[in-house]
Amino acid sequence: MSQKKTLSGELTKGIIKENPVFVTMLGMCPTLAVTTLAKNGIGMGLATTFVLVCSNVVISLLKRVIPDSVRLPSFIVIIAGFVTLIEFLMRGYLPELYASLGIFLSLITVNCIILGRAEVFASKNGVLRSALDGLGMGLGFTLALFLMGSVREIIGSGCFFGMKIGDLSAKPMLIFIMPAGGFFTLGVIIAVVNKIAKRKPPAEIGCEGCPSASLCKKNAAEKASCTGEEAAKA
Amino acid sequence: MKELVMILIGASLINNVVLSQFMGICAFLGTSKQLKSSVGMGLAVVFVMFFASLVTYPVYILLGRIDAQYLKTVAFILVIALFVQLAEMAIKRFIPPLYKSLGVYLPLITTNCAVLGAAITNVDKKYTLAQSLVNSLGTGLGFTLALVLFAGVRIRLETSDIPETFKGVPATLVAAAIVSLSFMGFAGIV
Amino acid sequence: MIKRYILPPLVLTLICAAVSGLLALAYDATYVDDTGVLTAKLIKACDDAAGDGEYEMLLDDGKPVTFGYDEVNSVIVDKEREICFIELTEDGYSTGGLHFVAAVDKSGIILGVGFISNTDTPGLGSKVSEGDYLKKYKNLDNNNAVEDVDNITSATYSSKGLKKGIALAHDVFEENKGEIFK
N or C: which end of chain B has fewer CB within 10 A? Predict the structure, then answer.
């Protein structure tokens, strides 16, 4: 992570260049699970953005206080706290969205993007940069979820934000809102993004942003093979 | 007894944690490249999930006593993280052979949403201790099954001729869609 | 020594305590207690189920009467038309995905269903709460007739959950008729 980036660079990198879903391949679970509607995608994305910004700020403030040996549990508790807070807010003010996001709202806690940013960015950078980084990554995530949700809602139920689209809504391709359609849509979108960006598709799910990466490398040093990726290289 | 069997089948096949609930996707895509690593990861998840539900059950009762069920996410994830770290240390120190095959996957599991997901599902559905354990076991086995099956698919994927843009992750996701489609066939069992 | 064994647990405990304390405050600030209150949504669902009317919720010590069923949230009566509305939460495809009221009249005829919320898969499970499908559950006189209504294709779970709820509402009504229309 280069330290020389401008502040606006910190903000925009997450939206396109290091988009958490399309480029670093993090946070796949909610990307696939809640995107049956464009509205749910945006709701989930914004909830994650809120948690990401808040936890990045708090962790970057506390980075000198937290001893290394309890770093991971401390981060997790702080993140889980903000997740529970957004759950309260959503239940109180947006009960329908709360119900349709269901268990995945609680599962923001274990979204690799958040712990990943805490570990690789917020615990090493200042408050302002961390907040911007969180905001950028969150918006990038929201954008990706919105894109997925729109494609699946339009093809799968012939609607867009609940509005019926002509002939499509009469005989929609139901498979797109079923689980299989989620995998398929994400695969195709990533391929299209790669084509447009003229970039080689990532061969593997990213290790760089993975919160367990540091633990993993420690193990790898002790023992030659670590995760599947590591084993595959050997 | 019949109910427990239904929960087991439901959790492992019908509502397969990876292919229809979308939990633990990162681990699913990350470690399904080889058969060996997929079996190791799968068994480690079964182990952690089973004991995590054993540990979170009393925690939830305790929270219920003080009317603070809303703290469940915080409490559960902390308990799971601590359990995983302790289990890793214990296995490394006392059963080195097991550590070689399972232990290396343990750190990856703390942030596997399938584990927290199973624990939360248990309390959301108001399962008893026995039902929770069976549900977690079923979920873990379903995860292993999906992982092992998909490892088989990916080995073939490696050698096939795929358009340049789709190579790597996109092709893997499309293949996962087809495997997920096949699991929809289980929907009629119960 | 202190740095290695005392400080880390202390910091972790402090963080946990701070997080839990703030959450307890936030919980009280955002929690809206509407158990036992006839909310606008509830009234609309009752209207959808059996036409407009005047409603009253059965309360026992400020809490809604549920006759001991987990799925039943409350029992609402229209005294003038002698209709009983049972508010239920049933599992559809997702846990607790179907939230609706079922209307049963004095002679035990199921008058209809009105939805409060349905969070099952949009386009599939969501179809069970659409008017065209709910019409099929109007004026059925027993649980067999409920069972005979066609399920929605590819939304078996949601259809089954809805039927289970309606049948339960009917049973709850038959068991507790005397108490409901006191």
Answer: N
The structural domain count of chain C equals 2
Residue B97's domain spans which residues? 17-184
- Closest to B133 measured CA to CA, from B46, B16, B15: B46
Angle at which helices B129-159 and B2-9 pack, to 10 degrees? 30
Asked if A123 and A59 touch (Cβ cutoff 8 Å), the reply is yes
Tens-binned pLDDT, residue by residue, of chain B (190 aa): 888 898 898 888 888 888 888 888 878 887 777 888 888 888 888 988 999 999 999 999 999 898 888 888 899 988 888 888 888 888 888 888 878 777 777 777 877 888 999 999 899 888 899 999 999 999 999 999 999 999 999 888 888 888 888 888 889 899 999 999 888 888 777 6
In the stretch 98-127 of chain C, residues with CB closer than 8 A to chain B read none
CB contact under 8 A, B68 and C24: yes
Q: Report residue C133 as tokens.
A: 């499908």
Within a domain: residue B12? no
ipTM value, please give it: 0.87
Query: Containing domain of residue A62, as a range?
Result: 7-202
Beta carbons of C133 and C152 less than 8 angstroms apart: yes
Same domain membership, residue C123 and residue C77: yes
Closest CA to B29 of A210, A234, A148, A176: A210
On whether both A144 and A209 belong to a single domain, the answer is no
The answer to whether residues C9 and C52 belong to one domain is no
How many domains does the structure of chain A reveal?
2
Give the residue carrying structure tokens 């929907």: B187
Determine whether the interchain pair A91/C7 forms a contact, defined as Cβ–Cβ distance below 8 Å: no
Query: Which of C99, C102, C180 has its CA nearest to residue C146?
Result: C102
Pair (A105, A215) in one structural domain: no
Contact list in C for residue B70 (CB cut-off 8 A) is 23, 27
Which tokens go with B149? 């099956």
Do C60 and C107 fall within a single domain? Answer: yes
Closest Cα in chain B, distance from residue C139 (Å): 30
User: What is the CB neighbour count within 10 angstroms for residue A196?
Assistant: 9
Number of Cβ within a 10 Å radius of residue A161 = 11
Structure tokens at B135: 């549900």
Phi-psi region of B33 (alpha: psi -120 to 50; beta: other; left: phi over 0): alpha
Is residue B57 included in any domain, yes or no? yes
What's the structural domain count of chain B? 1
User: C48: domain range?
Assistant: 40-180
10 Å Cβ neighbour count for B85? 16
Q: Are residue C44 and residue C124 in the same domain, yes or no?
A: yes
Residues of A in contact with B78 (CB under 8 A): 73, 76-77, 80
Identify whether residues A169 and A216 lie together within a single domain: no
Interface check for C156 against chain B (CB to CB < 8 A): the answer is yes
Cα separation, C10 vs C12, in Å, equals 5
